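Before the break, one more example. Copy the sequence into your notebook; we will annotate it together after we see the structure.
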Amino acid sequence: MVADLQGAIIAAGRGERLRKAVGELPKPLVELDGETMLSRQARAMLNAGASRIVAVINSETAQLIAERKIQMPPELELIVRDTASSMESLFTVGERLSSGLFLLATVDAFISPDEFSRFTFEATGKIGASGGTRVDGALGVTKWRGDKKPLFAHVTSAGLITGLGGEQASMVTAGIYMMPTRIFELAAEARSAGLDALRQFLTMLIDRGYSLVAIEIADAIDVDEGADLDAARSAIKGGR
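Here is what the structure looks like once it is written out:
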């Protein structure tokens, strides 16, 4: 495990597709088993070994946290910013991270605590020199089950990611990552290129020679719609 591992959570989006199913509540404050999705994700990172966590939330979410006096883990630092895109949300949390590796997740990536910890353990073990191949970072992937707007991951037999998006593949990204903070050196270039999404920035990393390894996550759920929320709650109830 990495000493002083940092965690980062992207949670500044409005979650439009889920709002009707949850009474217009912002996605980070939707509860799973009595716990907000934001708090649950932070707790999973703490259990996986993170010592501190930074999350970016929008002003609506921040206002509701204050009004409803919603408690968050003390290790969680909140940045309030209405970012223009998921890529800008990533760059925002990057402002508060120290140099080194960091564990990153989107707030709507539902992954069991055991799988979260396993990903962290395997990712930190593979980053660096692995079997003679340089590995810069790791992406959690899961089998595609027909969910809408997936980010397909094209993976070699050796487990390296050669591309993201494009033609249909058997694997999609699972919303969990392990990255070095030096990726932020490309922020200015990404903005100049007009990129406006996390998935576009990840593709840029591959194009710039970053070697990213895929780690399969079992039963990951991207909570975008009411049906996804039901599936996540059923998984919790079933003890998975």
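The mean pLDDT is 93. The first strand starts at residue 6 and ends at 11. Try to locate both features in your own notes.
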